[in-house]
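dude i think i finally got it to work??
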Amino acid sequence: MPASPTLVFVAGIGGSGPEHWQSRWHARVPGSRWVEHSSWDEPVRSVWVRELGEALARVDGPVVLVAHSLGCTLVAAWAAATPDSAVVGALLVSVPDVHGPQFPAAARGFGDVTYGRLPFRAVVAASHDDPYASFGHSVEVADQLGAELVDVGRKGHINASSGLGDWAEGWDLLAPLTDAGLRAALRS
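look at this
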C-alpha cells in the first residue's frame, strides 16, 4: 500500500516563526518537509519557484502542500509551470492580493502571477479581516484556482498574530486533503 501523502510546508515572506500554526504543525508531523528559501525577506518569484520544485523533487510519493500567504501565490506560480507532479492537494491559507496596498514591495515578480485552475484538489482558507487581501479577493482567487473556499470568520492574516496556537480548525481543513491524496495514490 502506498504511503500517506507527505506534508510540505510553504511559508510566506519572512517565513513562519515558532508560534505560527505552520511551524507548530511541521514540528508535530513526522516526515513532513519545510521549503527553505535563499532569501526569506526579499523573495524573487523565479528563485522561489525553483526552490519549491527542488524541495518537491526530494519527496517520494504523493504530496499535500500546506501554504500560507505568499507561499500560496508561490504554489499557484509553481503549478502553472509544473502541471505534472506528485502533488495531490493543497491547503492555501490567506492568499494575499499581489496588487493590494499592503503587498510587500520586497517581493519581486509576484505581481504578474495568474491564478489558473490547479491540477490537484485545493482549499483556500480566508478571513474577513485579513489586511493583505479582501474577502472578495479570496473568493475570486478560489474560483480561478478551482478550489473550495472556506470562510474562517475574522482571524486577521491567519498567522501567529491571530493567536490561533495549533489552529485546530485548520487541521480539520487539512484532513480531507490528505485522505483524498491517499485515495489518489491508491488509484495510480
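The helical segments are 21-28, 45-57, 70-81, 135-145, 168-187.
im so relieved honestly
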